[in-house]
Design a protein that fits this description.
Layout lengths: L4 H16 L7 H7 L5 H12 L3 H8 L3
């Protein structure tokens, strides 16, 4: 596979977060905890590295803002 366990786990977590970001009533900090990140800053770094945009930018695009 060429990926470490933590890279695979982060990918799975970010994919779950992307689904939750469709719900505008959920706070990004709450989403990061729900998918298993204890630190919002770490979640933000991993999300941006994987998706190329911040979680907030991703949400805004999803919601047409």
């Amino acid at each position: 596979m060429g990926q470490s366990f933590s890279e695979i786990l982060n990918h799975v977590r970010i994919e779950a977060a992307k689904k939750l970001l469709k719900e505008p009533y959920l706070r990004i900090g709450d989403i990061s905890e729900q998918v298993g990140f204890l630190d919002l800053a770490h979640f933000s770094r991993v999300f941006k590295k994987q998706e190329g945009v911040s979680a907030n930018e991703y949400r805004n695009k999803l919601l047409g803002k």
